[in-house]
Amino acid sequence: MGARSIFSRGLNGLSKLNVACLNFQPHMDVRKIYGNGVEAKYTYSGPALELLKIIANDMNFTYTLKVPPNDGAWGVLYPNGTWNGIIRMILDKEADIGLGPFGVTYVRSKFIDYTTPLLVDYTQNLGRRGNTEVALWSVLLALDPSVWIATFVMLAMTFSIVYLLDKSSSRVTSKISLLLRPDVSSSRSSI
């Protein structure tokens, strides 16, 4: 049961919702106090949880926060068709709402409903500003000088070996052709 189906038709008689969440600072701070698995106790704080309190107050419902057991994942589809993390909790009806920075993907949208995003986060890679002119020989900078030296030495050795094999093979070929050629002078005398 996704968020859209809960809020678009009201709460459908639900007065207490199970909300699954994970640590995502600074928006949600979920800290384990003690225990493991179902017996674990957590503290919850952060702006996303404050917003949940406001929505719960305005829509007159209560909620229980839950953390996905063991995997600590938002939700990934496995090749066998099962999900993990908060998505699995929603599909298994262990949670009614998943609170967190879910990436909106086509695959996920076939299984759950999304609300309007509260946060849009962009990832960017930064690098040093380089020279826009490309030097003619800059391709040589791709490899270490020792690699270039080794490459040219191997090329020289390869050309030398091919040259020597060619010269020796032509001598061997001429000797073999002399041995296999019939004696021209003896064949003329018999005619």
Summary keywords:
three-stranded parallel β-sheet; D-Maltodextrin-Binding Protein, domain 2; two-stranded antiparallel ribbon; 2 domains; alpha/beta
Protein model, in words:
The protein has helices at 3-8, 47-59, 85-91, 106-109, 145-180, 184-189; strands at residues 9-11, 16-21, 29-34, 41-45, 62-66, 97-99. It has 191 residues and is an alpha/beta fold. The protein folds into 2 domains: 3-109, D-Maltodextrin-Binding Protein, domain 2 (3-Layer(aba) Sandwich); 140-182. The strands form 2 sheets. The protein has a 3-stranded parallel sheet, with helices on both faces. Strands 3-4 form a two-stranded antiparallel ribbon. A hairpin with a 6-residue loop joins strand 3 and strand 4. Residues 1-5 have low confidence and may be disordered.
CATH architectural name of the largest domain: 3-Layer(aba) Sandwich
Strand order of the largest sheet: 5-2-6
CATH topology of the largest domain: the name is: D-Maltodextrin-Binding Protein, domain 2
Percent in helix: 25-40%
Counting structural domains, the number is 2
Structural class: alpha/beta
Write down the overall mean pLDDT: 77
